C-alpha cells in the first residue's frame, strides 16, 4: 500500500477513512478532539441577523502564485459574507479528492485553509470528505459554506445603489485571473503577477466604521471581473453608471499580459478586491480609511452612479471617448476559482 497517495479506501467510511481524518484532515483544519466529532456542529446563536453562503472551488492549477485552492476556498467564502456587511464566524468544508492525489499536497492545501481561516478569525467547524476514482475529478475540489452575523442595521444590497454614489475599488484589477492562467500555461511573466486572494472582512469593517449608513453596496468582483459586477449592480439597482478608465488601477505586468493575449483586465477575475458604492459626501473619507489598511493601499474612486438609463454602464476611455460596458460573454478563463 502506498501511504503517500490517497486511495479509494480513504473514502470508504472505514478504517482508512478514520486514519485520514484523525491523522491529517481534522488536525490540520480544526483540531477537534474525537469526543467532539459528531454529525453536525452545535453553534451558539449570534446576535443580529444571520448571513449564510456556499461556494465551490475547482481552480486549475491548485497551486498558483499568491495562493492555493485551500486559501482561495476560505477567502472566497469569507468575502461573500463580508459583502453583506457580515462578520464571518463559521465555515464548513467538503473535500472531493481524486484517487492518487498526493497526501503531501493534501496537507499543504489543508494547512493553507487553516492559516487563512485563522487570519480571517473564522472557525472551520464541520466538513465531509469523499474520494472518487482516477479520472473522475482533477486532484481536489472543495465546497465550503459560511455563516456570519450582521450586527448593524445598514442596508447593504446590490439593489441599493443611488444616483450620486461614488464607486470605490481597493486596488488593482485582474491579478488573480492572470496569475492562475500563467501558472496553468507555464508562462514566464516574472514575479510581478500574483493572485490577490485575501479575506476582506477586516477591510469591510473599516469601511463600515467610516461610512455607516452612507455605504450602500458592497460586491467582490470575482468571475467576470469588475465590468460584469458593475453591470449586475446597475441592473439590480435600476441605475446608470459611468466609469473612468484612467482611474481604474491595473498592475502594469497584468496590463502587458492582457495586451499580448487580447484580454480586457476589466473582465478578468479577482479574489481580493471589493467595490464599494458610497454616498458622495463620504467617499473621500472612505478612500482615506481604506488606504490605512494593508488591502486598501491603492484604493481609488473609479466611477459614479448617474440618473437615467437604468442598467446602462458607460466607460469614459483614456483616449477621450465613451463606450458601453456589458457583461462578459462566454468563458474568458475557465477554472479560475
From TrEMBL:
Gene Ontology BP term (one): protein maturation
Lineage top rank: taxon: Bacteria
Record domain PurM-like N-terminal: where: 38-150
Gene3D superfamilies (UniProt xref): PurM-like C-terminal domain (3.90.650.10), PurM-like, N-terminal domain (3.30.1330.10)
PurM-like C-terminal domain boundaries: 162-314
Cited InterPro entries: HypE (IPR011854), PurM-like_C_dom (IPR010918), PurM-like_C_sf (IPR036676), PurM-like_N (IPR016188), PurM-like_N_sf (IPR036921)
Database matches in SUPFAM superfamilies: PurM C-terminal domain-like, PurM N-terminal domain-like
Similarity annotation: Belongs to the HypE family.
Protein name (Swiss-Prot/TrEMBL): Hydrogenase expression/formation protein HypE
Organism of provenance: Oryzomonas rubra
Amino acid at each position: 500500500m502506498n501511504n503517500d497517495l490517497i486511495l479509494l479506501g480513504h473514502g470508504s467510511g472505514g478504517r482508512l477513512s478514520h486514519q485520514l481524518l484523525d491523522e491529517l484532515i481534522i488536525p490540520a483544519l480544526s483540531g477537534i478532539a474525537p469526543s467532539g466529532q459528531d454529525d453536525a456542529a452545535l453553534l451558539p446563536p449570534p446576535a443580529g441577523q444571520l448571513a449564510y453562503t456556499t461556494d465551490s472551488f475547482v481552480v486549475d492549477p491548485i497551486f498558483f502564485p499568491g495562493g492555493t485552492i485551500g486559501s482561495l476556498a476560505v477567502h472566497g467564502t469569507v468575502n461573500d459574507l463580508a459583502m453583506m456587511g457580515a462578520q464571518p464566524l463559521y465555515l464548513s468544508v467538503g473535500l472531493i479528492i481524486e484517487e492518487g492525489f498526493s497526501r503531501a499536497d493534501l496537507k499543504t492545501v489543508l494547512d493553507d485553509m487553516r492559516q487563512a481561516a485563522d487570519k480571517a478569525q473564522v472557525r472551520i467547524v464541520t466538513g465531509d470528505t469523499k474520494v472518487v476514482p482516477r479520472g473522475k475529478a482533477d486532484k481536489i475540489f472543495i465546497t465550503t459554506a459560511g455563516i456570519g452575523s450582521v450586527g448593524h442595521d445598514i442596508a447593504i444590497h446590490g439593489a441599493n445603489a443611488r444616483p450620486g454614489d461614488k464607486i470605490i475599488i481597493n486596488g488593482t484589477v485582474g491579478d488573480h485571473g492572470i496569475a492562475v492562467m500563467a501558472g496553468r500555461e507555464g508562462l514566464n511573466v516574472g514575479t510581478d503577477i500574483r493572485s490577490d486572494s485575501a479575506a476582506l472582512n477586516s477591510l469591510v469593517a473599516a469601511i463600515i466604521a467610516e461610512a455607516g449608513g452612507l455605504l450602500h453596496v458592497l460586491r467582490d468582483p470575482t468571475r467576470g471581473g469588475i465590468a460584469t459586477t458593475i453591470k449586475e449592480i446597475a441592473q439590480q439597482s435600476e441605475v446608470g453608471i459611468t466609469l473612468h478608465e484612467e482611474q481604474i488601477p491595473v498592475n502594469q505586468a497584468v496590463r502587458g499580459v492582457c495586451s499580448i493575449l487580447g484580454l480586457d483586465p476589466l473582465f478578468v477575475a479577482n479574489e481580493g478586491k471589493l467595490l464599494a458604492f458610497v454616498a458622495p459626501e463620504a467617499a473621500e473619507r472612505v478612500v482615506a480609511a481604506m488606504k490605512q489598511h494593508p488591502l486598501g493601499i491603492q484604493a481609488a474612486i473609479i466611477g459614479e452612479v448617474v440618473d437615467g438609463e437604468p442598467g446602462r454602464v458607460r466607460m469614459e476611455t483614456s483616449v477621450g471617448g465613451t463606450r458601453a460596458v456589458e457583461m462578459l460573454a462566454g468563458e474568458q478563463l475557465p477554472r479560475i476559482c
